[in-house]
Amino acid sequence: MTNESQMANTFEKCSVEVLLSGEAIQRRISDIAAEISKDFKDKDALIIAVLKGSFVFCADLIRKLNLNIAVDFISLSSYSGTSPDGRVNVIAGLKETPEGRDVIIVEDIVDTGHTLDFLLKELSLKKPKSISTCVLLDKKCARVKQVPVEYVCFEVGSEFVVGYGLDYNGFYRGLPYIGILKDND
Ligand code: IMP
Questions:
Q1: Average pLDDT, whole number, for the chain?
Q2: Residue 172: which region, alpha, beta or left (left: phi > 0; alpha: psi -120 to 50)?
């Protein structure tokens, strides 16, 4: 199937029900950014955003932080379609050095916790001064690995969500809101 026909197929078969509006997301990010700015005042903070899903969230978050921060990206893969398989791979690594720094992981969603668990272990090997995690969405009910999450914007249910950076097979990332993906069949 070509990319075009896959896209047409996806959009015909699915609809998106709004769960969190763009305004609600921005308000909550402002609150979380204020908290982080207070907690990391006078620290050598390094934000590590997990690609691809967190790029929209990270871009809005860092513009609301009242901090002098460095930003880096790591690309991990753990999902194919809508079902987690528990395996995590590093696709592209860091350019910055976490050693001795106060790292803040920025993630779009924590679901089973496999991805975050893997990343926390990988980063610990690089001897940062501290590691904190900031997530846009927490699917607590789906957790398999218990992982610490210091900053949570929203807790969500078990439904598959898209938009505001989150995708389904590469689509829907550009929606300005977060919605539940519904199969029309
Ligand atoms: P975990 O390893 O199961 O915690 O999954 C984390 C990753 O799975 C996230 O970074 C997302 O890329 C993806 N993911 C989990 N749930 C959803 C969802 O509802 N929509 C889109 N992506 C999801």
A1: 90
A2: left
